[in-house]
Automatic annotation (TrEMBL):
SUPFAM superfamilies: Six-hairpin glycosidases (SSF48208). GO terms for biological process: carbohydrate metabolic process. It comes from Acidihalobacter ferrooxydans. This is Squalene cyclase C-terminal domain-containing protein. It comes from the Bacteria.
Length: 371
């Protein structure tokens, strides 16, 4: 039996009660992100395949939204080398931006090179933060070109029905509210209100699709009848952050969904990896990325509403992830967050996604600042 399958079988047993120290976990996650950047080459980020013991090709979308995480870690832990890493990643993102202003779908070795709405929206986060940190014109130019491309691609009702990824479910996708969040950040960094107006239109469209219980249709990469917590959290965070910036109606809708998700939380703190339209479990495994992202949603709700109860749900799911985190081991695995728990679950099976480490570190840094 391979060590990977042995780990997957072992993870079907109850997790140990020991929770990894939060400070040590932050440093381990940051070291993993540094290793992923070194593997990506030229400043980009990659993810790790534990079964093949290889790193994937560089990933423009995820590199874009990892940049703020590196800046945050550098600030919170006085780690100037991570600020330099953030700037290298921002420069790389500028270099691979497509001529039309968009960002390509998939990895750098993907068979099709096409601008894609979601991937472009995620790159806005990196350029906006790099511009705020440095004032450099190259980040301003990339940010403006990408945001303008998104506005041209948007339909009048706020949805994006063109330029979906050829590697996932066709548009429109509710999780593109995360792209709207990126436009809201572009609006802040560039003092450009039309980007926030476009973000609001998309959120209004998504809220118009929502069911009374807060569930959003068309909100998964593959199966919209039982979406991943990963895409559920993308959508909720996007709605929440746009609402926080323009005092829109999304806060109540997110709270409705967040309460339902809290009821779906298992006794050990994890969420099922997929949930159906009634917020019932549709998976026995857990998506660790989605756990971290939903912790961020709960923490942000606590910040925005002043209701401390939200932090209880966040703490429980973060502690689950911390109990599954291995701080030591081979490069590519130590400090990495697996796609699924158990390790052989269907989401990124036997892989360590760079976005999982990013969102876990984001959540721990926010929890640390709130404590």
């Amino acid at each position: 039996m391979s060590a990977l399958w042995a780990r997957a079988l072992g993870e079907r047993l109850p997790l140990p009660r020991r929770v990894a120290d939060q400070e040590a976990a932050c440093h381990a996650l940051a070291r993993w992100l540094a290793a992923a950047q070194d593997a990506g080459g030229d400043g980009a980020s990659a993810w790790h395949d534990a079964r093949r013991q290889t790193w994937a090709a560089a990933y423009p979308e995820v590199s874009g939204y990892i940049i703020p995480t590196l800046f945050d870690f550098a600030r919170d832990f006085a780690a100037s080398d991570f600020r330099e890493r953030a700037l290298r990643m921002a420069d790389w993102s500028c270099a691979v931006q497509l001529p039309d202003g968009g960002v390509r779908a998939g990895l750098m070795d993907a068979p099709q090179v096409v601008s894609t709405v979601f991937n472009t929206g995620q790159s806005l986060f990196g350029w906006a933060r790099a511009l705020e940190e440095t004032g450099e014109p190259r980040y301003r130019e990339s940010l403006r070109r990408a945001a303008d491309w998104l506005l041209c691609a948007q339909d009048e009702d706020g949805a994006w029905r063109r330029f979906g990824s050829p590697f996932s479910a066709p548009p429109p996708n509710a999780y593109n509210t995360r792209t709207a969040f990126g436009l809201a950040r572009a609006a802040e960094a560039l003092s450009e209100p039309r980007y926030l107006a476009a973000a609001r239109r998309n959120v209004d469209w998504a809220l118009g699709q929502a069911r009374p219980n807060g569930w959003l249709p068309q909100n998964d990469l593959e199966d919209a009848t039982q979406p991943l917590t990963h895409t559920i959290a993308y959508a909720l965070r996007g709605i929440l952050e746009v609402a926080a910036r323009d005092r829109g109606p999304g806060l109540e809708a997110v709270a409705t969904a967040a309460h339902a998700l809290a009821r779906a939380q298992r006794r050990d703190g994890a969420l099922p990896g997929r949930l159906d339209a009634d917020w019932n479990s549709a998976a026995r495994w857990s998506c660790l990325t989605g756990n971290a992202q939903l912790a961020l949603v709960w923490l942000r709700l606590a910040e925005l509403t002043g209701e401390a109860d939200w932090t209880t749900f966040a703490r429980r799911t973060l502690d689950f992830n911390l109990r599954s985190l291995r701080l030591a081991g081979p490069v590519g695995m130590a400090g990495g967050v697996p796609g699924s728990h158990p390790f052989d679950g269907p989401y990124m099976r036997f892989r360590y996604p760079s976005w999982a480490a990013k969102f876990m570190l984001d959540a721990l840094l926010l929890r640390r600042r709130m404590s």
